Amino acid sequence: MSNDTKIALILKTLRIVLGDQLSIELSALADLDTRHDVVLLMEVTEECTYVAHHKQKIALVLSAMRHFAAELRRCGTQVDYVELDAPDNTGSFSSEVLRAVARHAPDRLVVTEPGEWRVQEMVQTWAALSGRPVEVRADTRFFASRERFAAWAQGRRTWRMEHFYREMRREHTILMQGGQPAGGVWNFDAENRKPWPASSIPPARRRFVPDETTRLVMALIERRFGGHFGALEDFGWPVTRAEALMALDDFVQHELPNFGDYQDAMKVGAPFLYHSLLSPALNLGLLSPREVCRAAEAAWAAGAAPLNAVEGFVRQLLGWREYVRGVYWTLMPQYEQGNALQASRKLPAFYWNGETTMHCMREVIGGTARHAYSHHIQRLMVTGNFALLAGLEPRAIERWYLAVYADAYEWVEMPNTLGMAVFADGGQMASKPYAASGAYIDRMSDFCSACAYDVTQKSGPEACPFNYLYWAFLIRQKTRLARNPRLAMPYRTLARWPPERQAAILAEADAFLDSLE
Ligand SMILES: Cc1cc2nc3c(=O)[nH]c(=O)nc-3n(C[C@H](O)[C@H](O)[C@H](O)COP(=O)(O)OP(=O)(O)OC[C@H]3O[C@@H](n4cnc5c(N)ncnc54)[C@H](O)[C@@H]3O)c2cc1C
Ligand code: SF4
Question: In sequence order, which residues have a C-beta less than 8 Å from that of residue 273 and are 6 or more positions away?
Fold first, then answer.
């Protein structure tokens, strides 16, 4: 090869890193040439406002992006960073990419596949818009590629997470011993449903004090998005990889051993309990799911955490997290239109302002406003359960979940909401709706003892609304759900109720729901 040809082969690449791709090992950075390439990071209004994200979520993403850019620069990378308030910022990814192409005249663009369908559609226009080839690389930070999941799902009538999870355990040899699951069983869920003991004090959790970069971003957000949901005061999320690693280490040492036992427990004034609080860092790319699973497995191998805790934790990451991503990419864009139960009620205002006499809802929504966080059972069995029983319009509740959590990105939030919480996909993910009366919340929390309603009463003005909403839901959905074998028991109970009793329950539920509008 002549020298001339060699020179001609040097390509200048514009490498685009999106806000939730803050990983040094990102595929788009794999063959980075620090002498010729430019890495582009963009803060754009469109991404802060396509839903009115919790202020802490925007603060987290922008602060983590700024720290990541500084880290890249320290390693000698040329970074083009577009700040939200830059005077010529056009406010959207596509127009900012075009401006960057004009600034740097690259030969090609490289980007890792985005996490949301909406952004993927934008990326698909960039080659035509910029006149440059665009290479879209697989996101190798996940255990399973989109294709791997699609191959697993192909030809299966139902997509049960448990089956997928077992394949992932085998494929990645996590918690395996001689080809068998460690401890001889795949699943310790039955051990992981203890309520919080009344005398126990919840663990104090490590939080991270906002540094100057985060404080600057917080001021910017109050200025630009002051009307968005939630408060910034209690911001304590890790915003750098170093902080995220500290959070992981802290969790593995102090909380992981009890994670399993109290995974489903809820307690007034204690939104975190033994949950890891790692999802915001994971979803941004500050931690990789592989290192998090391996850290948990190592704690078990060293005898520092019991198997029910470690398996329960690994199941969330290697199982649920990978599985919901697969569901999202395999079923979009039709997936977001799902409304199998024909639910159509408007989202009540208390989802935004927390003003409700139902203590459980007030507690979870209040915690969400304060921390941009609630743990899985609070999301699924309190706010999600209410949305299911009340027949809230799936798209409205889905947009709510996308707006209110620091860890919310469509690929993970949408299947959890539409598939798991409100059964809008008709059972693609869950074998039955996660519908529950007040008794479940009472068993798993201390919310009911300080509530205006009486959880033991099934009807009447003092009765817990979850009780009559639960039965009204089953009555209303009878034609769709009565044949589901997992709902045989409650439908047998209903069959014993005279029609007048069923009509009275329906009327009571409707009157309550109408009063919310
Ligand atoms: C209606 C609804 C909406 C949700 N929206 C989101 C969302 O926007 N973003 C998000 O990351 N998770 C979402 N989840 C899943 C889960 O509630 C959160 O991942 C979890 O609460 C995050 O807190 P943690 O890090 O303390 O989790 P832990 O309880 O400590 O779990 C460990 C990790 O496992 C993963 N994980 C656990 N459960 C799930 C799950 N069901 N799906 C995917 N990953 C899981 C998370 O990465 C989490 O960090 C949602 C669940 C429901 C029911
Ligand atoms: S009584 Fe009903 S509404 Fe009140 S906290 Fe318990 S479950 Fe929630």
Answer: 196, 202, 203, 262, 265, 266, 267, 375
Q: Which numbered atom of ligand 2 lies nearest the CA of 361?
A: 8
Q: Which is the closest atom of ligand 1 to the Cα of 384? A: 1
Ligand 1 nearest-atom number relative to CA 279? 49
| Euclidean distance between CA atoms 438 and 440, whole angstroms | 5
In which band, very low, low, confident or very high, does the pLDDT at 8 lie, cut at 50, 70 and 90? low
Whether 276 lines ligand 1, by a CB cut-off of 6 Å, is yes
Q: Scanning the structure block, which residue is given the tokens 């997470």?
A: 161
* pLDDT single digits (tens) 219-236: 999 999 999 999 999 999
Tens-place pLDDT, residues 122-160: 999 999 999 999 999 999 999 999 999 999 999 998 899
pLDDT band at 485 (very low <50, low <70, confident <90, very high): very high
CA-CA distances (angstroms) from residue 352 to 75, 120, 194, 298, 415? 43, 29, 30, 41, 22
Q: Each residue of 248-291: pLDDT tens digit?
A: 999 999 999 999 999 999 999 999 999 999 999 999 999 999 99
Distance CA 209, CA 50 (A): 28
Integer Cα distance of 175 and 181 in angstroms: 6
- 496-517: per-residue pLDDT in tens? 999 999 999 999 999 999 999 8
Contact 359 CB / ligand 2 (< 6 Å): yes
Check if 442 has its Cβ closer than 6 Å to any atom of ligand 2. yes
Task: State whether residue 153 is helix, strand or coil.
Answer: helix
CA of 132 to the centre of ligand 1 (A): 38
Q: What are the tens digits of pLDDT across the range 95-114?
A: 999 999 999 999 999 999 99
Number of H helices, E strands in the chain: 26, 7
Ligand 1 neighbourhood includes 401 CB (under 6 angstroms): yes
Expressed in angstroms and rounded, the spacing between residue 165 Cα and the centre of ligand 1 is: 16
Mutate to test the pocket of ligand 2, among 267, 268, 359, 381 (most ligand atoms within 8 A of CB): 359
Sign of CA dihedral 328, 332, 336, 342: negative
